[in-house]
Design goal:
Order of helices and strands: HEEEEEHHEEEE
Oligomer: single chain
Mean pLDDT: 80
Helix content: 10-25%
Number of strands: 9
Strand content: over 45%
Largest sheet: 6 strands, antiparallel, barrel
Strand order of the largest sheet: 1-2-5-8-7-6
Shape: globular
Low-confidence stretches: none
Distance between the termini: 38 Å
Radius of gyration: 21 Å
Number of helices: 3
Length: 170
């Protein structure tokens, strides 16, 4: 029997509304205080992959683990309102420290990279069920913003981050 959405709904397991929150911790200037805490629409956690090294010996092929081949990027879809404070935060981060015309991104990474903590909440919106910490993060792309008169919703935009290490917090 094929599984359809109606079959799943009929299992006495109602659809749950999970929420995600992102804390952005600044570079060395901000210490351990979050400089942005925001509930977000979606978070794409990064994939994890390893290159393999092939060794041929006496007619047999053996594979060994090689270097980390992960992309080291992740994307977050943020909500924002008409004041565009969240959007301006990321534009200032990129324009003020990474794309600066005077320094030409000549600052060390310690000044523009921070940490991002991604929290997953249970359906009750208060219980944290999982967290991931991304170290040495910085935005590499602030996506398009669609402004439309058709609806009065919060607008959304994507931010893609580069990072060094993905730590799963238990």
């Amino acid at each position: 029997m094929a599984v359809t959405i109606n079959n799943v709904r009929a299992m006495n397991n109602p659809q749950r509304a999970y929420e995600y929150e992102v804390d952005v911790f600044g570079g060395t200037f901000a210490g351990n205080l979050p400089i942005l805490t925001q509930r977000v629409e979606t978070v794409t956690l990064p994939s994890n992959s390893v290159d393999t090294i092939e060794v041929n010996f006496k007619g047999r092929k053996t594979l060994y683990a090689g270097r980390d081949a992960s992309s080291h990027t992740f994307t977050v879809s943020f909500y924002d309102d008409e004041a565009r404070d969240v959007y301006k935060f990321f534009r200032r981060w990129m324009d003020g420290s990474i794309n600066d015309q005077i320094t030409g991104a000549g600052l060390t990474r310690d000044f523009y990279a921070g940490e991002v903590l991604i929290k997953t909440f249970a359906h009750d919106s208060t219980t944290i069920t999982g967290s991931s910490r991304m170290t040495k993060c910085f935005p590499t792309e602030v996506g398009d913003v669609q402004l439309s008169y058709e609806s009065s919703e919060h607008f959304r935009f994507d931010v893609t981050f580069a990072f060094d290490e993905h730590i799963i917090v238990e």
